[in-house]
Amino acid sequence: MEPKVINQTLSKAAQSGRWKYGQHACFCQKQGSGNNWAYGYSVHGPRHEESIMNLIQKQVEKCDSLSGFFIIMSMAGGTGSGLGAFVTQNLQDQYPNSLKMNQIIWPYGTGEVIVQNYNSILTLSHLYRSSDALLVHENDAIHKICVKRMNIKQISFSNINQVLAHQLGSIFQPTYSAEGSFHCRRNPLGDLMEDLVPHPEFKMLGVRNIPQMSENSLAYSTFTWAGLLKHLRQMLISNAKMEEGINWQVRPPLSGLPALGKMSFNKELHFNTSIANLVILRGKDAQSADLAGFKDPALYTSWLEPDNAFNVWKTQRAFNKYEKSAALVSNSQFLVKPLDVIVGKAWNMFASKAYIHQYTKFGIEEEDFLDSFTLLEQVITSYYNL
Amino acid sequence: MTQSVVVQVGQCGNQIGCCFWDLALREHAAVNQKGIYDEAISSFFRNVDTRVIGDGGSISKGKIRSLKARAVLIDMEEGVVNEILQGPLRDVFDSKQLITDVSGSGNNWAVGHNVFGSLYQEQILEKLRKSAEQCDCLQCFFIIHSMGGGTGSGLGTFLLKVLKDEFPEVYRFVTSVYPSGEDDVITSPYNSILAMKELNEHADCVLPIDNQSLFDIISKIDVIVNSGKLGKTVKPKSLVTSSARALKNRQEKPFDAMNNIVANLLLNLTSSARFEGSLNMDLNEISMNLVPFPQLHYLVSSLTPLYTLADVNIPPRRLDQMFSDAFSKDHQLIQADPKHSLYLACALMVRGNVQISDLRRNIERLKPSLQFVSWNQEGWKTSLCSVPPVGHSHSLLALANNTCVKPTFVELRERFMRLYKKKAHLHHYLQVEGMEESSFTEAVSSLSALIQEYNQLDATKSMPVQDFPRLSIAM
Predict the structure, then answer these.
(1) Is the pTM of this model over 0.90?
(2) Min CA distance, B81 vs chain A (Å)?
(3) Which value, in Å, is the radius of gyration of the alpha carbons in chain A?
(4) Which tens digits make up the pLDDT trace of A287-318?
(5) Per-residue DSSP letters for B395-427?
(6) ipTM of the predicted structure?
(7) Could you tell me the residue ranges of all domains in chain B?
(8) What angle do CA A251, A252, A258 make, to 5 degrees?
(9) B236 to chain A, minimum CA–CA distance in Å?
(10) Which of A221, A348, B289, B334 is 20–30 Å from B114 (CA)?
(11) Does the structural domain B407-460 have CATH classification 1.10.287.600?
(12) Residue A29 contacts residue A44 (beta carbons within 8 Å)
């Protein structure tokens, strides 16, 4: 809703000389939403609904076969969160047969925006109702990756965004659709949903990828699939966000015994139970990689067979200078702790009624807040009880 | 991009305003090398072709012809405004955007507010509407005034109500200069308290400043610069404290250096809205993030660094020093000690070559020594603008919504009560039409209510952080 960033984005793309955004593919206003979810949702949304939906319609018409929408937004601000939620809702109404995946940026814990917790819970609760899947990237996690793995001294947002883009690329670049076939996967978005979101109550997906290192170190490293996959599996089980500092003590529960991970609400979660996992392998000899470790039923909840819960996509083509790389998209308890923390902080602020007048000014009442809290507490409980 | 209109009222307001426009022109001249009228300049200036007779046709793009400030100058005495109009900035101001009178307000809030308010209401409205029409998308009014006098205090706060009624969607940011302890105007407590009531009710955000703090800052800079401790690395006159005139003439007016600090404050406040950066912050975000309850909208500000080093490659330690300084009580623009009081919210606006990792590192470093209110433990709002201020490689403006403003208010109330009990000078006010004793008592109770709110928050300072019980879900 304000012009500076879009102008920057358009000119940067055009400067690359290889691609650019469509000339009329952007929409901006002058004033921004002031970090106010209510302003983005209740004021900007209805005001610009027609123009925005028209722009989307034009792009849709240019597609041969639309599988769905990928909506990129943050949760902490006003426009990304509020207007993003509004647009997602509209997309659901107008294109009910298309899939929607929202890529959301989870803000830094120590705050970029003071009311980010309010904006986040309002966004999450609304998206949970209208979106099909939420692919979450946490700023804190990516920042740590930059610090520890990429050896960057002064980290800027463009560093962070590059790591993020790499993760997204490793998911969405083409892969082959079946063993030995030469056809590319036709519908990655649809396949992602099918593989990872078997139940509408569990929509939150996280991404881990391996290896993560700076370009200088790449030249001196070699990888084996066995090594990479062993690390990736442990990252999954112990809920590690990056390749370093993985807790190797965490083990999946032995079959037949009650799962160690099934603890009550407030205790520390050690073992990360998954609903579904998708591993994407890119690089030499991907066909020969052994993925048995991921098919262990102990990793998954009881209501899905590992054959259904685990999928793998492969391609021989290396990605982004890594000779071999693997990405894991997981619908698991990855995000339940951060979600719990955000809901807790928002609840404390809400109990003191701080900043509420800024939201009621634009039509979001205390009831709307309470609805959001209720929905999210429900999601947290469901995930904890996996 | 949005525009802002500056309304400068009274002697203090106009003098600060003058410094502000001087600095704004220099900043834009340094950034805008090509002389093209762009969005950043348009936030404070109009581009006018002075050859066109009449209204002066406004040009929205292309080369800069003649810049006119988006400002309205109001004073009930002619001296200050005339001086501005004869000085080097005379072409920047539109001669039709002035309101002056001859006799002045006699340091009497009632005269400024009631007498001149009703007398000039129509004219004021007309000039404001004109300014607003010339804006594409008006976002904010900046009002600059002092609290202790008559015009700035009385007419300035009268304006607030007018702005609220006429432009309810436009933000009202007020820069108020509070009277110091040894103020030479005897009735300044009366004026200030009467003005505070208006600020409580009609302003969106108030940045209180006091002369004593500004003076201390200037003295400190002079001591450091002149002691030669830092040697050749410090430029003798930094742009934070001196205007271009002074740099040339070496003969400064007494308040010039102090006013420049306030002018820098205003520029840094709006820098992220005008220039690009990796983490932008618009003016509406300031209000959204720093005002948790409508009454508590007083923000303590501090500006660092205050002197320029000639060394361009600033080692990280200097950068960290900049952050530490912003929280020390010597750098605040009002007599306050935020470190030992309770923070409700804090905003850090950084300009220049600083990255997100530097910002985060410093927040982590400083957080343990600061006390935040229980429901806002991580109450930080941050912004990064890539354009540094003129003459510096980076700078930081910290805005804090902190209970440390309370002592200022309490002291003000004490000084008020000392006069009021004796009914000293009261007749000057009561003989103005529309003023009664109840006006005074209402004003004091409004201030007392505000102080009480801060007291309540302070009381929670030492209590352990309690989590409220969450909603429980039946499975």
Answers:
(1) no
(2) 33
(3) 21
(4) 777 888 788 877 888 787 777 788 888 888 88
(5) EEEEEEEEGGGHHHHHHHHHHHHHHHHTTTTHH
(6) 0.81
(7) 3-242+255-293, 302-403, 407-460
(8) 125
(9) 31
(10) B334
(11) yes
(12) yes
